[in-house]
Write a structure and sequence with these properties.
38% of the residues lie in helices and 21% in strands. By secondary structure, the protein is an alpha/beta fold. The strands form three sheets. A nine-stranded mixed beta sheet has the order 7-8-6-5-4-3-2-1-9, with helices on both faces. The longest helix is centred in the N-terminal third of the chain and has 21 residues.
Length: 352
């Protein structure tokens, strides 16, 4: 099984962020949360002691605000389980300003072998407008520290379409990043327009520029022998995120913490997104029907490795989209064409 741990604390909240977190916390609030998180994990393993542990993913929020001792406390519960011997990947999301040589060494000693670094952009204007506390100086300093450290599996997050974006921003950022560090994995996300504040509107790039940014970044990475294995994710061979792939192929996963989601035995559940609700153990549950699972397989399949033609009932729509170069068929599997991935929501709605 794949495990996600939500750490809902940030020093400040980025203005585009949609995740459950708070920028207002102190040592006591963190202590109370960690104790609740540990209790939730322990109660799960008390009832599921034989479960194999494939991956652990610290997400947030900003997990890198935790001390080495706090991370160790949490991981110690997993280490005690019989299934820990099967683990292959432990990921820690981190902000560049948290990176120090001591921090990287501590993570490595705790068996954390994958670091996901939230860079987002090297455009100083964009960083300022979005409320990011990073600076290029902090980002490059973090790169220099990481390259000298023991963790080799590094992932970089970028966002296309932030306010202040200029033509060629993503490729420019990639060139600068790769001159300092050679990551194994890169994610290029596109800003979700319903999230940004109204006063950003005059600073946002056009839809055409956003699409151009993504496509040029995708081409740049693929020329560097990165394979796109999901719409937003690119990796060197063998360095695809095992944890994230579990979401897309309907593997069973269990989330712990505020607003964390789980998918176990065909049932999806989500913890409360409020601290008070989470501490009371409130969860929402949904039993997925076979039709719902089929729809999700189509959605995830088109984002990743394609959908088998026999799973799509409306063959007329498939044929029409194929003629319009929106879809292509290879060895009885249906794929999105690269140029039209921005129409994925429309294509999926027609197919299902």
């Amino acid at each position: 099984m794949f495990f996600y741990l939500h750490i809902p604390f940030c020093r400040q909240k980025c203005l585009y962020c949609k995740f459950a977190l708070t920028p207002k916390f102190d040592e006591l609030k963190v202590r109370i949360y960690i104790d609740a998180l540990k209790t939730e994990i322990e109660e799960f393993f008390d009832q599921n002691s034989e479960i194999s542990i494939e991956t652990i993913y610290f997400g947030g929020g900003t997990p890198s605000i935790l001390t080495g001792e706090q991370i160790s406390e949490i991981l110690e519960i997993f280490r005690k389980q019989r299934g820990f011997s099967n683990i292959s990947e432990i990921t820690m999301e981190s902000n560049p300003e948290d990176i120090t040589s001591e921090y990287i060494q501590n993570l490595s000693k705790l068996w954390i072998n994958r670091l996901s670094l939230g860079v987002q952009t090297l455009n100083s204007s964009s960083l300022q407008m979005t409320g990011r506390s990073n600076s290029n100086e902090a980002i490059f300093r973090a790169f220099d520290i990481i390259t000298k450290g023991p963790i080799e599996n590094i992932s970089i997050d970028l966002i296309a379409g932030l306010p202040g974006t200029i033509q060629g921003q993503i490729v420019s950022d990639l060139n600068k990043i790769f001159s300092h560090i050679t990551p194994k994995h890169v994610s290029i996300y596109m800003l979700e327009d319903e999230l940004y504040p109204p006063d950003w509107k005059s600073h946002l790039p056009s839809e055409e520029i956003i699409q151009s940014e993504y496509l040029s970044g995708s081409k740049w990475l693929q020329e560097k022998e990165f394979r796109r294995y999901e719409l937003s994710n690119f990796a060197k061979s063998g360095f695809e995120s095992k944890h994230n792939r579990s979401y897309w192929n309907h593997s069973q996963y269990r989330g712990f913490g505020l607003a964390a989601a789980s998918f176990v035995n065909g049932k999806r559940s989500t913890n409360s997104s409020s601290f008070s609700g989470y501490y009371r153990g409130e969860r929402e549950e949904e039993i997925l029907t076979e039709d719902s699972l089929c729809i999700e397989r189509i959605m995830f399949g088109l984002r990743t490795s394609g959908v088998f033609l026999y799973e799509l009932e409306n063959k007329d729509i498939v044929e029409r989209f194929q003629k319009e170069w929106l879809l292509e068929i290879q060895e009885e599997k249906v794929f999105l064409t690269s140029t039209w991935i921005f129409l994925i929501d429309h294509i999926i709605s027609e197919l299902i």
